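Key idea: predict the complex, not the pieces.
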Amino acid sequence: MLNQLALTYLFAQNSGFQIVPIINQLISGVGIVGILLLTGLGLAITFGVMGIINLAHGEFIMLGAYVTVFMQELFDMDLLLTIPFAFLVTAVIGALIELTIIRRLHGRPLETLLATWGLSIVLRGVIKLLFTAQLKYVQSPSYLSGNLKLLTNEQGLPLISISHYRLFIIGIAIALFLITAYLLYGTSLGRKMRAVTQNRDMAKCLGINTSLVDMGTFAYGCGLAGIAGTVLSSLKSVSPPMGQDYLIDAWMVVVTGGVDKLIGTLAGAVLIGESNAIIAFLLSDPVARVIVLLAVIVIIRYRPEGLFTVQKRG
Amino acid sequence: MTKNRLYFDLGRTSRRRFLKYGSLAVGAGVVAACTNQGQQGQQGQQQTSSQQDLGENPIKVGVMYSTTGSIAIVEKTLQDATFLAIDQINNGTGPWKENGAGIAGRKIQKVVVNPDSNWDLYNQMSKRLIEEDQVSCVLGCYTSASRKAVLPVFEDKNALLYYPVYYEGNECSSNVIYTGAAPNQQITDSIPYCYENFGPRGFFVGSDYIYPKESNRIAKAELKNQGGEVVGEEYAALGTTEFITIINKIKQANPDFVLSNLVGDSVPAFYRQYKNAGINASDIPIMAYPTTEQEIKAMDPQNAEGHYTSFNYFQSVDTPENKQFVREFKKMFGDDRVTNGVMEAAYLQTFFMAQAMKEVLEAGEEINTKTLREATRGQEFNAPQGKVKVDPDNYHTYLYARIGRWNAQGQAEIIQSSPSAVKPIPWSQALYPGRECVHPSPDDRSDPTKETGKDKLETKYLES
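Result:
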């Protein structure tokens, strides 16, 4: 009843500024935020916590998606059940890469950047050789299809709605966010992780096995990217270059939010996702991308450390 | 005291070793990237020389499709279809059965290059094919951008390119044989269909580059000629997979149909999110051009069920030639593969080329651009889509115009088809009324553009 009243009220002033589509777009924007948070979270670990410029982050997302494709082709597995596998496989690959490449380049950001860029090409090439360049698709679970209607018009057509799958993405993203926050700030492992990044030598003196912590942290970050890949695989098709689409967005989120605090990633995702959604709706998609990128540049210019960050001692 | 120094002092690893490992890792990445590219080019060449005995004096033909990079997903399938045709010609099987193995006894030697989805490389590699390898002609290119990049080379060196892709038209070169759809074979029949069956209000979407924008410009003019209106037009950056905003705009505009010129990876994402957003195909159907069996397969066919595509060929076309094509293709490349309109064009143009070469050789002449061009004019071929013909006037191809509705199995039910192949008109008649293209015979490469002064060139069909 309240809905009906609200509806007639909103439609009464329909002639001018339309509020319902804007609300709908804001709600849809939450779906974009979920994706940004999901892809940015892994990077918040590898870059934010460890300070590694990982240009192969997108490829870990791609690897996660291919694990899902593989499991579905082989065992006809439900998408949700493949999530742990995607996490494990990408985490193990991440650990191996940390062991063989990242570790040897510690403290040399430029070389790390080049090495991970090369790595991204290699990973794409290997996947192309194993799975061919054909587009693959994954089956999304049927219980996640359809959408949640928050407001409908007289004909029953949804005016404000969000698809169940988008809700699922947001749910997963927030769950992973909370788990990661707990891991970092609530466990001794997290304390070690932070100790190693804040003062590696002191941490080492205090008996922390820094190389093991490094490997574990990097592997966890990669595993998160893998989960993102699984979840996103059903929104689009799976192909070797798919990860690159997410790399820039993930970087924007992490850099805007600030690299030190996990909450910065959440803030970055909300800010970029929602402003993108609104500008794209009022103007157009390519214009929105330009404006948002410009805004990020301005933010970085005046707050190079990001929006949310703690002052560090020199 | 810097961190680095301290680290250095701890003696775990030296600066020198950092540098060594660092450059090794980077080097390995770069080398891997380069060899990946080089290998693929070589593979193709080796394949021809080692696996097959090409006999004496083979005919060199360039095959230029990217098998790496962003467009590889599509271009690899065109290369596959081309290889199948060359295989059939060299072995005298399939449509080439009556002609025996090879072209008048001579086999095709394919010279394969991989331009890595990079427009500059298309330009360089076409030069290499023409000058160093001295191929008699080139089969290749997919995007309009790559065609535009190589066009100056082919015109400058007076070489011949067979181009298998539906495109935006408004071009008529003496050095290109266009075997994909011209605008009048794809847009001109689908817009009236939408107007009559769905309604007058269209919402246009596309990827943000030349082909979708030109194609939509023509389609818009056609829709206005019909008396319809465009209620929205949105473009997404190439490769975008986030369509929530565009879909919301479609919902708000509530059009009678959506015309999609999205390409590549965006296609599966758009259809999936369209369905997820709760829009039924029966309420607002999508009419698309670049959405073929290949993209449908990549999106889970249920998402496209009930939507439409306008194309010359569908895998479901019911001709004996098509059954054979699909069977042979699956035999060569795997049972899970599908065929589509672009692949079919890549396949049929190889036969146009072979038939023309046969004619030249049987007339006792040498194969060069001039003889091959004159011989290709007017070639007819029983292609999988039906009987097609190279238009002797404008070097485009008489093709069928069909509209298909997708079913849950990812195949099209053909709901409308021209009675026979439609004569191509390279210039969009909605934008350039009365303009046509007639190359003189024999072709002296003068400007072929002719203004007839008519309001619109009439649609002509191939007489069977």
